Each structure stands twice: as structure tokens, then as C-alpha cells.
Amino acid sequence: xxxxxxxxxxxxxxxxxxxxxxxxxxxxxxxxxxxxxxxxxxxxxxxxxxxxxxxxxxxxxxxxxxxxxxxxxxxxxxxxxxxxxxxxxxxxxxxxxxxxxxxxxxxxxxxxxxxxxxxxxxxxxxxxxxxxxxxxxxxxxxxxxxxxxxxxxxxxxxxxxxxxxxxxxxxxxxxxxxxxxxxxxxxxxxxxxxxxxxxxxxxxxxxxxxxxxxxxxxxxxxxxxxxxxxxxxxxxxxxxxxxxxxxxxxxxxxxxxxxxxxxxxxxxxxxxxxxxxxxxxxxxxxxxxxxxxxxxxxxxxxxxxxxxxxxxxxxxxxxxxxxxxxxxxxxxxxxxxxxxxxxxxxxxxxxxxxxxxxxxxxxxxxxxxxxxxxxxxxxxxxxxxxxxxxxxxxxxxxxxxxxxxxxxxxxxxxxxxxxxxxxxxxxxxxxxxxxxxxxxxxxxxxxxxxxxxxxxxxxxxxxxxxxxxxxxxxxxxxxxxxxxxxxxxxxxxxxxxxxxxxxxxxxxxxxxxxxx
Length: 516
What we know:
The chain is of the alpha/beta class. It folds into 2 domains: 13-136, Chitobiase/beta-hexosaminidase domain 2-like (Chitobiase, domain 2), CATH 3.30.379.10; 142-484, Glycosidases (TIM Barrel, Alpha-Beta Barrel), CATH 3.20.20.80. The protein contains 17 helices and 21 strands. Helix 11 (386-393) links the parallel strand 19 (378-381) and strand 20 (398-400).
């Protein structure tokens, strides 16, 4: 790749041609049918910095310099592949479908001067694209990030901004963590107390959870998304080719739900959404009415999210209350379940069967392997890669999300010089070194690796600036790992392109962690 062309993630093949195409106020964008959706998005991206209100036309005027977007079945580069040609007389972007065009739109943005990412008109810039021929497609279909909205609530505008940045990096998934012990963030019309009570905790921990004594701010905290707001965000993501995977936690991380509906729990002690971080013992009970509650919740979730994949958590479920509950023990005996791990497996299998009947696919953190894996489940392997390897060997799809490389709530350097984080160390170079397919996997097993994503747990991330700092440029590195060929360029080459890319992020107001 020539030094002047700094695209991230690195394309599969890029050939400079020596030509140049320049945008002017006379330029037009030409697209018809579904391609017009990608064209309108491109026009919206180009307008702020250029000041050009480029029209989207169904046919090309004879004398107007144009950017043409075409849906072309002859482009056989998979669901997200595209071909891009920049010539002196115009730009042509082709893909087999709208998603491929949307990926190519992000490349067009990056071929322009970095000032194109400014939010106000920039004077004195020649808006030229270097002549190139690009053939591009992703290595893995699952690429993106998880944002925890349970520990800290993020507004609709903040969530949209997060998604738009994912789109810039050609991500395909936004994993929306919507419920946890500390807050229930999604309106469920059948169960209004989930947001009336479950969305608001009495106060929030100050400092680190390991501090002694623990301190709290004394301020009620919370928020939730209405169903109309969620529909708005889903549409926003779809316009950028990103699928939202919602997460509704069960059977653990359930205190906010139990606070709203105490009959879902195992103890009679009244609860509030938790002010504590960490693993909490208040988990769902295993009564039929609890399964009915969760199925009713999921029915409303499915109406809002078209994603084939629905995440049900399944992680960090203490068994203490189940062990101590005479009713849970009796229920296990009724069902012929030998121990509490098998009880959790039964719980997840019930949800798996329900989602399968609805035409969806259950995703869970790797604890869902304990006691036996549900028939159709996808495993998100976070406690290392062992769970993913085990699941792939059993013929299940996996998303590799090990703490070692994909947890972006971890420190990026010596904690003494970094803002407060949970623990751990995940510097940029380590992220870029990640290989999602473990060496132990056979080629057949490797086909089950869907990809990976970056995790943003928000116990210690409560502002947009802090989220930016923790996410970028680590998410830039991870999405290149997931998009570009395994034989991509070196880390040094990535850093060269990244330095240009950080100027783009500057234009977007992203408060990323500076390179060391």
C-alpha cells in the first residue's frame, strides 16, 4: 500500500492507478433501487466538511463528475464484499448487495483528505480521491463491539455515535447489553415495573470495588430506552449495515429484574437494583412462571430486534441461592436434574428451545457449556478460548472474546499513568496480535469461528470521553484483525496507517488514547 493511501481496516487488494478524481459542487451521486440508501448515507457523510449538497440521482447526467453506486450480482465477494474503482472521470462502487456498498462507502470516506471528517465546512481543500482499484471483503462475519448499558446508562445519541464509529471501521455487529444487576434498560410493556423500579438504583459506587471502605455517591441513578427509541436505533444501525444483538441476562445478573418482580427471585428480602459491582448472588428462580416471564420479555425483544442472534447472558450465575432453596431443590428433583450446574443447563436449554421456535439463535457466554450445551446455542468464549474450542469441536458456532485480547475495560499501560479501570492489561499491540482461530482447531472446527468483538463493560466508564479513550484505537486494531486477511501487513504498517486514521477520529471529536 502506498504511503498516501491509509485505509483501515486494510483492504484485501489495493492497486494504485495514478489517476485522481476531484469532488466539486457539480458532482453527483448516482444510484438506483436499494443502492440509493447507501448513496444517501454517503451524501450525508460528505456534506458537513465540503458544504456540497450532492444530489442522489437515478441516472448520470452527461457532463457531471459522478460517484456511482451499483448493486451488481456479478460481484461475487460474499455478503459484504465490494469493488471500488477511482478514475479521473468518476468513482464506481459495486457490490452484490446493499451491505457491501455500505462497506465501500466507508472506504470512499477514507480515500478523501482527512478533513472530510470535520463537522463544519473546511475551506481551501481540494476534495480529491487518489486513483485506485480495490477488491475487498471481510475475513470473519462477526466484527464489532459490546456496550454495557446496565452499569452505566448511555443516551440514544451516545449509542448512535458509538454505532456510527463502528460503521467507519466496517464492523457488522453491535452487541447491546441491556440488563444487569445494576439496571434494566429496555421498556417491556407487559412488565412496566422493570423500568419503573428496575431501571433506577439508589446510588453508585465511587472508586474501585476493591477499595476499603467502599464509597458511594448517594445519588439515584438510572434510565431506560423506550421501545420507540430502540426502533430508532435499530433503523440507524441498519442504515449503516450493522446488526444489533440484544442481550437480556439470565439466570444470573438479574437483581434489577427481581427488585421489580420479587416473585422471580429465591429470597424474601426486598431488593433494589444493585449499587455494587461484581458477581451478585440474587439470581432468577426456576419456577414455570419465571420461564413464562422470560419468554414474554423475549417476545417483545424479538419484535424490536430483527437479529437472528439473541444473547441471553448465562455468565457468572452463583448457585448459592439455588443450593439453599428448598423449593429449587424440590424443583430439581421434580425435573430429575442432578445438580445446580445441570439446572443452569436446563434453564438455558429452555430458552434455546423457545428462541429456536421463534426462528432465532441463542448466544451465551461460555458458562452455558457447564452442565451440557443447549442444542442450537452459539458460545461467546470469554474466559480464554477453551470454551470456544470445546464448542467448535461439538459442532457449535463460536465468537471468540477472550479477556486477554478483547476486554477494553482493561488497562492499556501501567495503571499508575492511566485512568481507573477494572484490572488487567490489554495494550494496542497485543490487540493487533490477536488470532481468533486457535492453533488447536482443525480446519473444519475453524469454520465455526464467526469472529470476535471488543467488550466495553462500564463499571468504570461513565462518560463519552472515557469510552472513547478505552475503545480507540484498540477497536480500530481489532476490526482490522477481523476484516483483513490473516496475512495482513505488519504492526508497524498498521501504525503508519493508524496515525492518519487518528486524524480522522480527531475530526469526529473522538477522545482516543494517544499512541505512546
